[in-house]
């Protein structure tokens, strides 16, 4: 393994103008297939590769490339990254909170040693890396309602400890090696066509299935328990939005930095009753409708 020297990392990078070549680890979990679908729409079917250690259902094979990848096997990871010209890595492999407590050594291996492999492979090959964190990264001494971005984080699960570790290691690799590391803290995710597995928030998905199947649900948490949840579409959209590419042009950036951030149009409103008709959502919808109509 080549842990990157500063020089070797900075000399490797992918061209931002090309389509990214994306590898999703843990692709058969709750989020991988949905994210692959979104990214494939944007970057092309063959540019997004799902991977896992399990055998996928046929539908996954039909919808785009799938390969076996074991994040604990560094050589296997490197082979995949090199052979497939991977430029973005979305790292979803993890043992969730409840199964993690049932098998701490395995959770430590997958969630911590596995992450080290992912960080090193990303740094070694100049990949952009996304690793999700979650509400699990907080603990009983964190403020619970609301929980701010920056506060005490002393989780009491191996899953949570591994997520705090991932947040800090990502920040450190960014600072130390210039790694393009991105991270979002997910709440519990609710999805209809994919199942979570081994998490504490799984009940919020299971309850829908049981409501339809039997009309009866046995909940493993108390009735007054409150946890943050999000529908999968919002979670996946946020993840793709976070992957926006910024390639700043110093000349334009300097000009932009010297211009007003916000225009005061109150005199125009007073003088002749000026008022805009297109707010941001309206403007975006109108633009996309025009462009889509032109493209047909
Ligand atoms: C879990 O319940 O373990 C996960 C999470 C919130 O991170 N769904």
UniProtKB/TrEMBL annotation:
Reaction(s) catalysed by this chain's protein: L-threonine + NAD(+) = (2S)-2-amino-3-oxobutanoate + NADH + H(+)
Enzyme class: oxidoreductase
Domain of life: Eukaryota
Residue ranges of the TM segments: none
GO biological process: L-threonine catabolic process
EC number: 1.1.1.103
Pathway: Amino-acid degradation; L-threonine degradation via oxydo-reductase pathway; glycine from L-threonine: step 1/2
Domain NAD-dependent epimerase/dehydratase: start-end pairs: 22-240
GO function terms (MF aspect): L-threonine 3-dehydrogenase activity
Role played: Catalyzes the NAD(+)-dependent oxidation of L-threonine to 2-amino-3-ketobutyrate, mediating L-threonine catabolism.
Family stated for the protein in its record: Belongs to the NAD(P)-dependent epimerase/dehydratase family.
Protein name (Swiss-Prot/TrEMBL): L-threonine 3-dehydrogenase, mitochondrial
Naturally occurring in which organism (per UniProt): Leptobrachium leishanense
């Amino acid at each position: 393994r080549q842990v990157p020297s500063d020089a070797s990392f900075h000399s490797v990078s992918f061209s931002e103008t090309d389509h990214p070549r994306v590898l999703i680890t843990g692709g058969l979990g709750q989020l991988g297939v949905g994210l692959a679908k979104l990214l494939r729409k944007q970057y092309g079917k063959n540019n997004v590769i799902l991977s896992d250690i399990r055998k996928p259902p046929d539908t996954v094979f039909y919808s785009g490339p799938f390969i076996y990848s074991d994040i604990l096997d560094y050589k296997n990871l490197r082979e995949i990254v090199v052979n497939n010209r991977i430029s973005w890595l979305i790292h979803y492999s993890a043992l969730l909170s409840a199964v993690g407590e049932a098998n701490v050594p395995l959770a430590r291996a997958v969630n911590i040693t596995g992450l080290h492999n992912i960080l090193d492979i990303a740094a070694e090959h100049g990949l952009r890396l996304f690793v999700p964190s979650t509400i699990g990264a907080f603990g009983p001494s964190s403020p619970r309602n609301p929980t701010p971005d920056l506060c005490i984080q002393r989780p009491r699960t191996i899953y949570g400890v591994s997520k705090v570790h991932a947040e800090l290691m990502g920040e450190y690799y960014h600072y130390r090696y210039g790694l393009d590391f991105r991270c979002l803290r997910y709440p519990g995710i609710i999805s209809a066509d994919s199942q979570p597995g081994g998490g504490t928030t799984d009940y919020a998905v299971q309850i829908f299935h049981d409501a339809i199947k039997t009309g009866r649900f046995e909940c493993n948490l108390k009735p007054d328990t409150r946890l943050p949840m999000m529908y999968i579409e919002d979670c996946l959209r946020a993840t793709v939005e976070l992957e926006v590419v910024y390639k700043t042009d110093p000349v334009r950036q300097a000009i932009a930095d010297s211009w007003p951030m916000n225009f005061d149009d109150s005199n125009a409103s007073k003088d002749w009753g000026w008022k805009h008709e297109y707010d941001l959502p309206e403007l975006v919808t109108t633009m996309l409708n025009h462009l889509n109509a032109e493209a047909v």
